[in-house]
Design brief:
single chain, alpha+beta, OB fold (Dihydrolipoamide Acetyltransferase, E2P), 5 strands
Length: 91
């Protein structure tokens, strides 16, 4: 087989794989510190920057400012972030 054809096939396969990986949706988790709460919406500090999250209903009475929480980004797109667990308190 011609070497140029082989390289072209390998490049094509790599492009297809990269596109498939970029389109794959998965859930990611992060740990953060609750900075403020307003209803079911919270501001949480993660890696030094603040992000807005929605608190799961069953945690509403248990989460307060200063708590350490687990946040899940449902589609790993920084849009749908939810607090799913409380790990502890800082105070």
């Amino acid at each position: 087989m011609n070497k140029d054809l082989q390289r072209s096939l390998i490049e094509t396969i790599q492009i297809l794989v990269d596109e498939a990986i970029n389109k794959t949706e998965y859930t990611s988790s992060q740990i953060g510190l609750v900075k403020s709460i307003k209803g079911f919406e919270c501001t949480v500090e993660v890696f030094g920057s603040e992000t807005t999250c929605v608190m799961a209903e069953h945690l509403h009475g248990h989460i307060k400012v200063g708590d350490i929480v687990v946040i899940q980004d449902l589609h790993n797109n920084n849009i749908n972030k939810f607090i799913v667990n409380k790990l502890g308190e800082t105070s």
